Amino acid sequence: MPTQLVTTLTSRDRVLAAIRRQPTDCVVAMPYMYDIAPINTGVALRDYYTNPAALAHAQVAFQAMAGQDVIAIGADNFYIAEGFGCKTTRSEDEVPSLVEPPCSDLMQVYDLAVPDPHTDGRMPVMLEALRLARQAVGDAVALRSPGTGPFALASYFIGSQEWLMEVGMVEGGLDEGGEKEAALHHALGLASDALIAFGKACWDAGADILHCGDSLASCNVISPHTFQRFSFPYLQKVFSAWADYGIDRKLLHICGNSTKVLELYAATGADMVEIDHAVDLRVAKQRIGDKIILIGNVHTVEELLQGTPETVTAAANRCIDHAGAGGGFMLGSGCIVPRYTPLENVQAMVAAAHSRTYPPAG
After folding, report:
1. Domain 37-292 carries which CATH code?
2. Which of the residues 74, 75, 114, 220 could staple to 146 if both were Cys, CB 3.0 to 4.6 A apart?
């Protein structure tokens, strides 16, 4: 394991400095981790995603084990969707998944209303978990909120497969009269408004970073043209509203190979973008590294889940070498770290970051 530097900043101060492109004592380590926390801390999984005290305890206790600079509060993708009427599972060994959407037909989205983040779905669970985690860590560790993206959230109104079919019909010119496209945009507006309200509530609850995860809008799922038409404007809407609220630490997370739309990601209004392993960090650094903070991109399966501390360390150092020059970068996992990833691999990733300073700008 790499030799640790003598760190002089708290994790939270290190993160805030890195986001502001100010000097730090070492590279920020922020692997994206949810259900790995309860598995390692003895918290029952069902308690983790339904009980805010259990969620906060698991994440805070796990951070003490792993040492990362950012605690990610969250569990699954449906805490907001449940506020719209989505029915989801309650399993002892899996996080919630969608059982029944609130609409059986796209045109029924006009019957939906934006939920209240303080009372509806499991949004109150997430908000209280943020408050409890903030109480537990004080100003020592940064907190990352949960937050589904507009395109993904809107898809849950009718089911993601049906949603993609409707989008495909519109893109294919099979929408005479434009009724389907109008309904799609209405749903996306509702989803954006819900995410805006939830994000503001998360900020008020103590989040340092607001997360917007729109992985269904991945270019592994939809085309760059579809992304620009049906996702990009709503990401802009969300980030603009958050910025108007005074929020200056906004994170965009979209899985898959985003190479073709990197410039669009940087133009959404986000302050940070989490880059998946499918993207060459050198390319991302060259194309958008001067516009937005990059986070990434140790492979979650090949390195973190299946690798060793030595291979994780090598992968982490490659990421830092490829994108860390001059700052504007935080070492991340690109996507959620698998539940059964060995703890020593996560520790190796964190140690690799904390053993390095940012290389000088080339």
Report:
1. 3.20.20.210
2. 74
Domain boundaries, the chain: 37-292
Q: What are phi and psi of 216, to 5 degrees?
A: -65, -20
* CB-based burial, 105-144: b 16+ in 10 Å, e otherwise: ebeebeebebbebeebbbbbbbbbbbbbbbebbeeebbbb
Q: Tokens 């993609």, residue?
A: 164
| 303-331: pLDDT as tens digits | 999 999 999 999 999 999 999 999 999 99
Copy the structure tokens of residue 81: 């969707």
- Tell me the residue type at 257: N
Strand order in the sheet with 210-213: 210-213, 250-253, 272-274, 293-297, 329-332
**pTM higher than 0.90 for the full model?**
yes
State how far the Cα of 108 lies from the Cα of 78, in Å rounded to an integer: 19
The 10s digit of each residue's pLDDT in 92-126 is 999 999 999 999 999 999 999 999 999 999 999 99
Cα separation of 82 and 120, whole Å?
7
Give burial (CB, 10 Å; 0-12/13-18/19+) of 340. exposed
- The DSSP secondary-structure symbol of 259 reads G
What residues contact residue 327 under an 8 Å CB cut-off, 6+ apart? 18, 21, 22, 23, 24, 358
The pLDDT, as a whole number, for residue 6 is 63
Distance CA 147, CA 349 (A): 25
